[in-house]
Amino acid sequence: MCIRDRVSTQSTWGFMKYIFLCGGTISGLGKGITISSIGVILKSCGWKITNIKIDPYINVDAGTMSPFEHGEVFVLNDGGEADLDLGNYERFLGEELTSNHNITTGKIYQQVINNEREGKYLGKTVQVVPHITTAIIEWIQKTATIPVQKDSSDPAEICLVEVGGTVGDLESGCYFEAIRQLILNVGRENCCLGFVSYIPTLKGGEQKTKPTQHGVKELRVTGLSPDFIVCRCEKPITKEARSKVALFTNVLPECVFDAPDLEHTFEVPIYLASQGIAEKISKRLELSIKNPDLKRWEKMTGHALNIERSFKSSPLKIAFVGKYTGCLLYTSRAHETRED
Length: 340
Hints:
Layout: E1 17-23, H1 31-44, E2 49-55, H2 67-70, E3 73-75, E4 81-83, H3 85-93, E5 102-104, H4 105-117, H5 128-144, E6 158-163, H6 173-186, E7 191-198, H7 210-221, E8 228-233, H8 239-249, E9 256-260, H9 267-274, H10 277-284, H11 295-313, H12 331-339
Parallel strand pairs: 1-6, 1-7, 2-5, 2-6, 7-8, 8-9
Antiparallel strand pairs: 3-4
Helix pairs in contact: 1-3, 1-9, 4-5, 5-6
């Protein structure tokens, strides 16, 4: 199959810029918070941002999924029932996303099968490549142009795409192949690939990088290599561990960032910005270098921390009345209550 001509959604400078974020080793590392934080940083640099979440499960949406199994269902303004990460995107970036911003395998296959039934493939054998991968690429590019900012009708300039699950999962293979093809289509200079991985710490305090090494190795099997790595860890990553991650993953040491456990998730953009992540991503995407202005975010974070600390010293109990009980089932409501 030949590579298509470079045709991409248009933005201020011609091509839309894409940042893809995936993860390895284990799920639940905080890819949603990480990519939301990157969005906050880039938005503070003056760029217009949009977000897309890819969920490889075969469900069409999260509406019929048990919250005990998948967590909270976030309801969008258009009535769409989506993954809770879309709630993170909206809270962090002040966006109004649509159902199209949550891509699932169910939606993609449903679209392709409907097209096949309508004869749109002109009798050809419908396959994962090129039909499923093309549907994914077109969905991403079309959705990237939908205006999402509450105070502007202008389309975004940078599209952040989070791939759910972990690299190596059988159900996510078609998405990594679609990303590989999309990068070829729009040009390597218009795409940046990030990888979130876990750095476990042994009882003696040693940080182990082998899970990250194997995660990146698995990513390379798909034909992709990360431009930057975000290491999730309990404490800030040591110089030795950072050097080892860089050496064995072929990523520059200055592009290996750490994201240790923090008191509040609002601290993550500030922590990542302090490591120069905006500059490294801007260079990779051939954007003009701008310093992030996080003064308003820092003020809001300070306010949130004060509230958190006051609750610890003088707890305030607020009851939620809902259909289900358990952790993560009403995460958005809990966040909104703390922020108010």
